[in-house]
Amino acid sequence: MLADSQLKDVLHQPSLRRLDQLLICLSVDAHRPKKIRELAGLAANAGARTLAKSNISDTLGRPAGLAVRTRNGWELTAEGRRHTAELLASLGHAASPTPKLVTNLRGFLGKLTNPGTRAFVEEAILCLEGRHLRAASVALTRSPSATYPLPRP
């Protein structure tokens, strides 16, 4: 939803509550669960040291339905992703323009057997998530075996 490089610009908006800041941290590389230490690191690297030192689990655990703690760490729920996307849009930072394409590509990734092709598609997914559309296009078309059928958005 949000690129790591955009985090410091977004986290320092005066209108954000602590919960919203943490949900935004969870939206970086949103498909992957995050441990408390990683969330604190993201916040600290973005200059939000107070957030990094706060009780992250307590803050994320209070409102039911926005984030859930799994065995692998904290993750946004569907409602949490919707809330965060709306929040980012209200701050002028639209979420990834191609979430359905990214989801389709991630599903398609498991079917790829060529390690070179798989690496290029993984790179394209990261580019799409970071909203680097030209780089994603290049990664997909310059793959060693760019003859795979791409999923439709």
Pick out its properties.
153 residues, mainly alpha, Arc Repressor Mutant, subunit A, 2 domains
Verbal overview:
The protein is mainly alpha-helical and 153 residues long. It folds into 2 domains: 4-90, Arc Repressor Mutant, subunit A, CATH 1.10.10; 99-141, no CATH class. The protein is 54% helix and 5% strand. Strands 1-2 form a two-stranded antiparallel sheet. Helix 7 (99-109) runs antiparallel to helix 8 and helix 8 runs antiparallel to helix 9 (133-141). It is globular.
Short description:
The protein has 153 residues and is mainly α. It has helices spanning 7-11, 18-26, 36-45, 49-52, 56-61, 78-90, 99-109, 115-129, 133-141; strands at 67-70, 73-76. The chain has 2 domains: 4-90, Arc Repressor Mutant, subunit A, CATH 1.10.10; 99-141, no CATH class.
Chain-wise SSE layout:
Blueprint lengths: L6 H5 L6 H9 L9 H10 L3 H4 L3 H6 L5 E4 L2 E4 L1 H13 L8 H11 L5 H15 L3 H9 L12
Antiparallel strand pairs: 1-2
Helix pairs in contact: 7-8, 8-9
